[in-house]
Amino acid sequence: MMRSTTPRQRLAIVAVCFLCLGAASQPRERALASYTTTQAQAGEETYQDVCASCHKPDLAGASDTPQLAGDTFLGMWGGRPATELFAYVNAAMPPAGRKPDADALMDVVAYILRKNGMPSGTSRLDSTASGIITRATAER
Ligand code: HEC
To answer: Domains plus CATH for the chain?
Structure first.
């Protein structure tokens, strides 16, 4: 014989279902992209050498060149994996002229993270990293 549920039990089941749906739709806590200070230092040199002529030495950009550090940049790249930024840079930047190798461009991405206030860590940024870019308040 099937036992039927009481209204109270049905209410409880519905409540549990909503809780589950809520949990599933929450954004997952995602780790921040990590890079080392050594990487960012190497990246700074390459950046000033290859990128600064267009994006400016302070990464502020210009009327025809996007900002690489600050609110506009974070509005575009915040929440996305640092490896996506690397993939873009590696594919498209600089638009012309001498292109640094992939390792050097990875270091430039580390430098961009630092200039956006993200803290450095103990693991190097590389193509297998899964951390995201985010607004952070550490010293630049
Ligand atoms: C000759 C000028 C020039 C140089 C040099 C240059 N860029 Fe760019 N960059 C641009 C322009 C212009 C854009 C806008 C996208 C486009 O039109 O391709 C851009 C876009 C970008 C973007 C996307 C920003 C966004 O939010 O849309 C990134 C990241 C970037 N550049 C990084 C770099 C890095 C890193 C270097 C050096 C390795 C570099 N760029 C060198 C001109 C330049």
So the answer is: 37-115 (1.10.760.10)
